[in-house]
Amino acid sequence: MEVNMFKIGEFILYKGTGVCKIEDMTEREFGQEVKILCIKTQLIKKKSTIYIPTDSKKLVGKMRNILSEDEIHTILREMSVDDGQWIDDAHERKNVFREAINSGEPRLLIRTVRTLYSRKQELLLKGKKLNLSDKQFMQEAEQMVCDEFAMVLHKKPSEVRSYIENK
Questions:
Q1: CATH number for the 3-65 domain, one of 3.40.50.620, 3.40.50.1220, 2.40.10.170, 3.40.50.10490?
Q2: What homologous superfamily is domain 69-166 in, according to CATH?
Q3: What is the 3-state secondary structure (H, E, C) of 108-147?
Q4: pLDDT of residue 33
Q5: N or C: which end of the chain has fewer CB within 10 A?
Q6: pLDDT tens digits, 93-150
Q7: Residue 153: its pLDDT value, please?
Q8: Could you tell me the residue ranges of all domains in the chain?
Q9: Which of 40, 50, 70 is CA-nearest to residue 149?
Q10: Which pTM was predicted?
């Protein structure tokens, strides 16, 4: 993915972090002159500045354009019957959820959220709760999806959760 495809003022998704706004593209010197892409995160809880060396394919590869409204509706329509399967093995489940979050891939994030929503409902009927690890994965995946979808769909992040559940 080329950095030139991103512009100052544009919103992007930085995998593992969420929706960010490109605030500036500037040059900084670190022993030798290196171009740096400066991104200001727009997440409510995580206001920080991330500096991305533009010559780092690995780090630049973690950036993608945010989805369009049509892309969001298409993804939700395609996934309407895909709630994901619960993985009993806790270690394997953690790896699958961690990979979904690190990928920033909308379908994987939505599958993670829906799988955990479904599991949470099952457990509530039995008077139980999600374990801490699963709860944290649900919150992180939900945060990433809700931030992006809320921005694109002009909804509050709190409204996006029920929107995803009902699609």
A1: 2.40.10.170
A2: CarD-like, C-terminal domain (1.20.58.1290)
A3: HHHHHHHHHHHHHHHHHHCCCCCCHHHHHHHHHHHHHHHH
A4: 63
A5: N
A6: 999 999 999 888 899 999 999 899 989 999 999 999 999 999 999 999 998 898 899 9
A7: 92
A8: 3-65, 69-166
A9: 70
A10: 0.79
* 125: its two tokens: 């009927």
Structure tokens at 26: 């500037």
Amino acid, res. 117? Y
Tell me how far apart the terminal alpha carbons of the chain are, to the nearest angstrom: 31
Residue type, 92: E
Q: Take residue 98 and report the two structure tokens written for it.
A: 């961690």
Cα torsion through 63, 65, 67, 71, rounded to 10: -110
- Give the strand pairing for 32-41 and 49-53: antiparallel
